[in-house]
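Anyone up for a design puzzle?
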């Protein structure tokens, strides 16, 4: 039925990262939404209410924040048994829920204190900072809770064609980059100066097992150590092009499925995962599949979203180059996001993303290392 299909497409477009009246720009929230949790309706409803607290603290909607804290506390009390049943380790989740509950009363007290202080006063700023710090701890616990709800042994299906490429299987990895200015200069973030830029990134093997695996393997090999930033134009910050004629990584054995580049680069296929699908599709883009406008599981809607770079007209020409998107609602307005589904998102910066505002060409990645999740990396046999 064409009318039904039109309705489905319209709904999908509304869900897509770059459309609708409100864009989710929170990397931690997007990563939670990307977790493969079955029967997650109640959990998602709970998380949406809890995430509103952050917005309300930031915009000084004090009464709304207090109401959100009250609703979050009530849901944790009424749904805790249901939530723990969904977990792989019920004792672990019982402990997480107890820790979350313990954070809510101090947050509530801070927001009530904020109501009694003059707008813009130092006292107001302090209690709002306290409430925000409490929320940051709360949202990390929400992530831990939802990660416990991923079924034991869950692995995103990947066609056997790509078994000869590294893969990040059944989880996520954490990667840390440290950058320096070539002249010993400092990074300027909103007037504050820092001698180095440190960024922490979550690489997602649930949504991008091949892309994520390729990146984590290269980080672990030291491929990006001492590499320069090669592009910084206000839209993206990009690196991954080694010295010499090759435009990507030339080590290892090229995949039989996508082959090698013109200078022997190991290539990896385009990998796009749309919401509602059981796994990514490969070697094409969302437009090639006739699905333009549908939502991807991880969208390019967060500042510091990580995308895999390639030649514009060849979906399978990526090797080792990647970019951080400097997402801006003015540069990428609602309904105009042309990146989702054309390039894979394989992770987000979760700490230090603001450094990207002052990362320039020729800045140096002095250190790139995998700090967690290396056990999820599966190398070709």
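Challenge accepted. My sequence:
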């Amino acid at each position: 039925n064409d009318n039904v299909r039109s309705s489905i497409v319209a709904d999908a477009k509304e869900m897509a990262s770059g459309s609708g009246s409100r864009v989710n720009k929170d990397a931690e929230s997007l990563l939670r939404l990307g977790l493969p949790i079955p029967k997650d309706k109640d959990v998602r409803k709970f998380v949406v209410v809890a995430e509103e607290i952050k917005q309300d603290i930031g915009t000084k909607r004090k009464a709304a924040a207090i109401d959100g804290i009250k609703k979050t506390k009530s849901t944790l009390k009424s749904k805790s048994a249901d939530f723990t049943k969904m977990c792989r380790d019920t004792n672990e989740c019982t402990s997480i829920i107890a820790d979350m509950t313990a954070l809510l009363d101090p947050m509530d007290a801070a927001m009530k204190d904020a109501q009694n202080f003059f707008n813009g006063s130092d006292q107001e700023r302090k209690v709002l900072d306290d409430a925000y710090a409490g929320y940051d701890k709360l949202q990390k616990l929400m992530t831990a809770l939802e990660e416990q709800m991923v079924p034991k042994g869950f692995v995103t299906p990947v066609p056997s064609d790509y078994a000869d490429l590294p893969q990040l299987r059944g989880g996520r990895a954490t990667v840390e980059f440290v950058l320096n200015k070539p002249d010993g200069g400092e990074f300027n973030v909103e007037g504050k100066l820092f001698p180095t830029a440190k960024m922490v990134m979550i690489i997602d093997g649930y949504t991008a097992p091949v892309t994520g695996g390729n990146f984590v393997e290269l980080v672990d090999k030291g491929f990006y150590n001492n590499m320069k930033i090669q592009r910084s134009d206000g839209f993206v910050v990009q690196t991954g092009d080694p010295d010499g004629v090759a435009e990507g990584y030339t080590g290892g054995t090229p995949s039989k499925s996508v082959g090698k580049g013109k200078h022997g680069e190991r290539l990896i296929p385009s990998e796009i995962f749309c919401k509602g699908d059981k796994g990514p599709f490969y070697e094409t883009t969302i437009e090639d599949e006739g699905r333009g406008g549908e939502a991807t599981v991880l969208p390019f809607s967060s500042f510091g979203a990580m995308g895999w770079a390639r030649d514009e007209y060849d979906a399978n020409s990526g090797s080792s180059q990647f970019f951080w998107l400097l997402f801006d609602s003015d540069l990428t307005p609602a309904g105009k996001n042309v990146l989702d589904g054309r390039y894979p998102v394989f992770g987000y910066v979760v700490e230090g993303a603001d450094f990207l505002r002052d990362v320039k060409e020729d800045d140096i990645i002095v250190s790139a290392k995998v700090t967690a999740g290396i056990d999820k990396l599966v190398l070709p046999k």
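A detail worth pointing out: The chain has a mean pLDDT of 91.
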